[in-house]
Amino acid sequence: MEAKLIPRQQKRRRARKLARFYGILTVFVFSVYFLAGFFLHPLFLVSDIREKIRAVADTVNVLARVLNPPVKPVVTATSACVGGNPAVILDWADDGNSVSYDIARDSFPLSTGVVTSGYTDTAVTLGQTYSYVVTALGPMGPGFSDADPVSVNAPGECTAVIVPSILFQTFAGKNISGTTERHFTTDRNPRVTGVTNIANARVELLIESASEVIRTTVFANINGYFEWRYEGKLDFATYTLTATAIDQGNPAISVSGTLKIGIESAASQDVSKQKATLTAENVSEAEKVIQTRPDFDFSLQLAERELYAGDTVHATIIWQHLSDELIGTEGEAFFQLIDGDGKITSQFSQAFIFARDTSLEQGFIVPYGMPDKDYRVRVEVRVLSYRVFHEEILRILPLPLLQLGSTTMTYEQAVSHIGWISFLILFLFLWWLLLFLREYFLYLQSTHSLTGKDLHVAGYF
Predict the structure, then answer these.
(1) Radius of gyration of the CA atoms of the chain, in A
(2) How far apart are CA 21 and CA 11, in angstroms?
(3) Torsion region of 385: left, alpha or beta (phi above 0 gives left; psi -120 to 50 gives alpha)
(4) Cross-strand pairs, 215
(5) Of 2, 251, 401, 403, which one is least surrounded by beta carbons within 10 A?
(6) CA dist., res. 333 & res. 378, Å (int)
(7) Contact criterion met (CB below 8 Å) for 33 and 415
């Protein structure tokens, strides 16, 4: 009997050694994954695990039914000269289920919140070919409403020279194209969108009220589309927003536009509805004159515009002008690194003293684990009720780790691959553990000893 048990004991001993080795291997690989990911950035582990779960979840089909979807627009595009300038005229049929339309040109946003079934694109170049996609938005969202792309060539020649233009499109989610009256909202950080016919323009914004002044800079995309949202909270007051679009290749080409807005509390909404009945004289008397105050402006310069994660961003603030009242006073500068979704990935502040013929230099490290794409370096300088924002574009390059021919493996990719290997080993370990438990259960059943009581219960005697 003992000779028969020895092979079984050896088999069980080998199984325990294999389980111990597999467990140590699993812990080791997971430790390497988590330590390497934490070295990059703690948020890298969160985003990487989330992406892996999302990749697995993509195999699950989720069906949803959208009520009253908008009808798919059938778009026609015609090139023309409008006012002596090249233009593309888009047109499609009316649809009662569509609330508004978004228009993309060459896969980039061109206009949002369009409430009519047509659009004239004046931000085009002579002889250039463009592709347009119109998306209809209904009560339940966009649904299945993307139109088929249409391509068209802009006119090859127009008699007049292109005149720079700028147009505000939406304010706080409402279409304001072609309007001149003041627009009110209870949203204290409203979103403003617009378009200019200067591609990739630098758009300088000046927002003024009776008690504060805000300066900021945003960049239009290749279609001239730009947007801005105040990160803080505006006061309950009326503001005048002036946007100046400047051609980055030729600063002499610029155009300005003005938008009047107002921020009101919910309690004052009923009162604000009576503003439309005021006469022009009453409106002019009600407008507050913007008071003069000590002001300043600055330009933001980056030593390098392409960096790797872990490198240091060197930002320099150069004063454009300073009022005499500010010399010797204390101010505060806020530095932020912002991704394409508007999320702040890194920020800090620095106090300083205003002085002429000086510049403010600051360096901060790009966190590890940041995806390789374009980011914005935003600098805000505050003093009293005066705030000035300026931004510059920064490109984060993938951190190279290994070069295999023409293929480069980055550090982030290597850690992500280790993560996949870790989860695969963990799955195999759990699967092997279930098989081991099953075999152990069968072993216990095979070595079960019978007693007289068992035989009596079974009915043998």
Answers:
(1) 32
(2) 15
(3) alpha
(4) 206, 388
(5) 2
(6) 10
(7) yes
Helix (H) or strand (E) holding 178: none
Are the beta carbons of 322 and 388 closer than 8 angstroms? no
- The span from the CA of 140 to the CA of 124, in Å, is 33
Rounded CA-CA distance 262/191 in Å is: 13
The DSSP line for 241-281 is: EEEEEE-SS-TT-EEEEEEEEEE--GGGHHHHGGGGGS-HH
* HSE toward the beta carbon, residue 341, CA cutoff 13 A: 3
Which residues lie closer than 8 Å to 36 by C-beta, 6 or more apart?
414, 415, 418
The SS3 call for residue 73 is: coil
pLDDT category of residue 458 using cuts at 50, 70 and 90: low
Q: Which residue has the tokens 């935003």?
A: 378
For residue 126, the tally of other CB atoms under 10 A from its CB is 14
Model pTM above 0.70: no
Q: Which DSSP category does 324 fall into?
A: G
Tell me how far apart the alpha carbons of residues 285 and 279 are, in angstroms, rounded to a whole number: 10
The tokens for 13 are 């001993």
